[in-house]
Amino acid sequence: MRIVPLLAAAAAAYGQANPDPSAVLKQALERLRETSGQLEKYVCIETVERSYYRRVVPREAPVLPEAAQACGPPASGARDSLQLEATDRARLEVSVSQGHELHSWPGATRFDARDVDELISDGPVSTGAFGGYLAGVFGRPGVSYRYIGEQTVDGKKLYEYGYRAPLDGSRFEVRVDETWRAAGYEGEFRLDPQSLELERLTVRTTELPAGAPFCQASASLDYQRVHVGDSDLLLPRRSQLEIVLQSGRETRNVTTFSSCREYQAESEIRFDTTAAAEPSTAARFGRSRVALPIGLPVTLALTTAIDTAGASAGDPMAAKVVKPVKRPGSGEELIPAGATVRGHIRRVEHHLLPEPYFLVTIAFNRVEIEGSISPFFARSEANLELAKELDANVAMRGSGVRLWGVGTFLFPSRQNHIVIPAGFESKWFTLATGGR
């Protein structure tokens, strides 16, 4: 019933050469508030390309106190003197439930309520591009709006508006130590006055909580309609998030969405703290379960190549067991040669400074033996001498046993990308049978 007056109002706007900005805003807000709620029915693949920059200070620039260097205004021309240090990429599935974005590794049909930084434990991560920004700007009480003026972009007339969200009840949150704290934000958005479509949205922080690890964060999102099933979703064509860190370094995250789909009947959202790999896998844990002692050597060979030009954290990964794994003392065969272990990539990084190299981290969580599936938790030690030579950080951020179940591999190279071939062998040691 609510859609009838909206369509009537929109039709009236279409007939005006210069629609009233206040009327356009009112109609568009109604439409955007309904749009943000529609996203709860859909899942998309979210790919985040991250770049890390360090600031290069000109020799003639005055030496500033450390505090001023961190969050003070940059010296003239300093913003143009950023040097790319490293890049990486992450890929997740994303959806919205009860106003919050939920994530999982691609291929899983279950979401859980863990924060995204528990899935991607290294580098800057954020939520909001899929639907959080829409809800925070257009669906939140207390946000104030103002008309700025008319803009012409690529020959198209657009209306630009400003907005400001108060700190009280803010949905923009920053992790400080182990807690999330609210931050104030403001920005602008552009509307097509004829179709009422949102074309562009910017978001930037205004008030940060004490102890925030960065000085400022700003996001820009360019929107488009994406046809999924019988509906057209409003999604960012491209979203860019820029963060200025306390150290003076900057990061830029570019997010895109693909492979959107409606929830299927077998999909499920879990609100717990344990991430299951897949429903079918979880159901088969315990059927002919293999109990693996700690410390058994396992040689694995990748079944598919990893091309760093496109590989991402979150991509599924599989390997074959090269040699039978036997129980010490009895010689009982626990895992036969040829069994498949499965998991996903945790890190794919390209470092340029001080020495160029690629870093790839893989985690496996299950082994398939003659049709049955058992947990598999193992670790492959990084080459610490090479890590020291490259000044590489091979440690996973955070704590807990689950962060030990990884293999980290370093590849010095001056190429733009490398390919780790199928058949690449690595030596692992089992840690436990209950890890994920």
Write the SSE topology.
Elements: H1 3-14, H2 21-38, E1 42-55, H3 66-71, E2 82-97, E3 100-104, E4 110-111, H4 116-119, H5 132-138, E5 144-153, E6 156-165, E7 173-176, E8 179-182, E9 184-191, E10 198-207, E11 214-228, E12 231-245, E13 250-262, E14 268-269, H6 279-284, E15 297-302, E16 306-307, E17 316-321, E18 325-326, E19 333-335, E20 340-351, E21 357-369, E22 372-375, E23 377-379, H7 384-390, E24 407-412, E25 419-420, E26 425-432
Helix pairs in contact: 1-2, 2-5
What does this structure look like?
The chain has two domains: 3-269, Clam (outer membrane lipoprotein receptor (LolB), chain A), CATH 2.50.20; 279-432, Type IV secretion system, VirB10/TraB/TrbI (Lipocalin, Beta Barrel). With 436 residues, the protein is mainly beta. The chain has helices at 3-14, 21-38, 66-71, 116-119, 132-138, 279-284, 384-390; strands at residues 42-55, 82-97, 100-104, 110-111, 144-153, 156-165, 173-176, 179-182, 184-191, 198-207, 214-228, 231-245, 250-262, 268-269, 297-302, 306-307, 316-321, 325-326, 333-335, 340-351, 357-369, 372-375, 377-379, 407-412, 419-420, 425-432. The chain contains seven helices and 26 strands. It starts with a helix and ends with a strand. Mean pLDDT is 82; it is low at 1-15, 64-69 and 265-287. It is elongated, with a radius of gyration of 25 Å. A hairpin with a 2-residue loop joins strand 5 (144-153) and strand 6 (156-165). The strands form five sheets. It has an 18-stranded antiparallel beta sheet that branches. The chain has a two-stranded parallel sheet with strand order 4-14.
